[in-house]
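Propose amino acids for all 369 sites.
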């Protein structure tokens, strides 16, 4: 049962929504080699659409086609380190945001062996912390990115700075990016680590993260979702809970202009639970190659095949569609969202070369540093 008549959606916008999903799904299938066909950036009326350009970056709603999620679940989760370090490295994937942020922090050039030892940080290993700080400074000189460029990181930066000001008893201490890992290391002893490992629902994980200063709805939801792909965790990305980001809020506001904002999460539930009936997934074929991810020992990363839209993915899709609606007629804005793609070694298949754009929520504003 819903608290609003979500069946009263705007039928014309739904047709655009369906076409958007078809196009980004086709692009992903071409990029991953699942299909071999020519891609044309045309809208549903057959007109050229800048927003649907081949390299205009959008996240696919299927979690198996999100390279950051694949990296967390297949590389970070399998690395020989403690559960706490696995969780910490999963968290900073989103707190920093850039592809390759782990390599920038640790100074490693190997994406399969570049992880922060959060146990050493939690034990206040000052030499190791300085080592990480030096790596970050060097990465900055070499113009290697650490921050995602379309997420706003100011709340994370302020929270980690304030933590370090108190820890080091320095009220005037300036922020340094290494403060983030120093802060995340404190999650071991402040109860966050233990609570997250005990959580059995993504909504519970969200509430745990939201208790921390600097973590609002965006980082709470996506921090929970990012760590949900770790096999070590009990909560799951298709648990019935979402915190709609700005892009999703924009989409919902257009599709249901009279809907109360306090029920906006229900709109995502409605889209996910009725996607076929309302035409959202009409003529959309999720490729079997993306149903799941093979793991060592014949296991699969996810407990079920990803054949349909899931709650987390539907929120992602709604955010991406909201972004598309706002930039599709602006060629310059679309160009700013283009990502370079390059052929990379097999060990880098979880990373798209030069891809540093992270934007589950709509944040086209650049973080000013």
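Proposal:
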């Amino acid at each position: 049962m819903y608290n609003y008549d979500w069946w009263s959606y705007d039928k014309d916008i739904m047709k655009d929504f369906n076409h958007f999903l078809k196009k980004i799904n086709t692009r992903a299938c071409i990029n991953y080699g699942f299909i071999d066909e020519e891609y044309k950036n045309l809208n549903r009326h057959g007109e050229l659409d800048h927003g649907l350009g081949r390299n205009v970056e959008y996240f696919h709603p299927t979690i198996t086609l999100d390279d950051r999620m694949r990296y967390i679940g297949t590389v970070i989760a399998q690395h020989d380190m403690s559960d706490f370090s696995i969780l910490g490295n999963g968290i900073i994937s989103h707190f920093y945001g850039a592809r390759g942020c782990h390599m920038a922090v640790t100074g490693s050039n190997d994406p399969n062996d570049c992880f922060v030892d959060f146990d050493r940080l939690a034990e206040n290993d000052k030499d190791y912390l300085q080592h990480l700080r030096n790596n970050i400074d060097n990465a900055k000189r070499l113009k290697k990115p650490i921050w995602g460029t379309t997420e706003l990181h100011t709340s994370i930066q302020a929270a980690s700075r304030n933590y370090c000001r108190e820890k080091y008893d320095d009220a005037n201490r300036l922020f340094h990016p290494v403060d983030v890992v120093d802060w995340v290391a404190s999650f071991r002893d402040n109860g966050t680590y233990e609570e997250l490992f005990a959580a059995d629902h993504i909504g519970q994980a969200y509430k745990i993260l939201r208790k921390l200063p600097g973590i609002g709805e965006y980082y709470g939801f996506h921090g929970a979702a990012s760590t949900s792909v770790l096999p070590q965790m009990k909560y799951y990305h298709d648990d019935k809970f979402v915190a709609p980001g700005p892009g999703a809020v924009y989409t919902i506001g257009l599709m249901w202009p009279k809907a109360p904002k306090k029920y906006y999460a229900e709109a995502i539930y409605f889209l996910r639970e009725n996607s076929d009936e309302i035409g959202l997934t009409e003529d959309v074929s999720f490729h079997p190659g993306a149903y799941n991810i093979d793991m060592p020992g014949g296991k699969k990363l996810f407990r079920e095949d990803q054949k349909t839209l899931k709650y987390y993915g539907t929120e992602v899709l709604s955010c991406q569609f909201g972004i598309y609606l706002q930039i599709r007629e602006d060629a310059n804005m679309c160009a700013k969202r283009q990502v370079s793609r390059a052929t990379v070694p097999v060990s880098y298949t979880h990373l798209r070369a030069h891809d540093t754009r992270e934007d589950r929520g709509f944040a086209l504003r650049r973080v000013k540093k």
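Residues 340-369 have pLDDT under 50 and may be disordered. Residues 6 and 270 are 7 Å apart (CA to CA).
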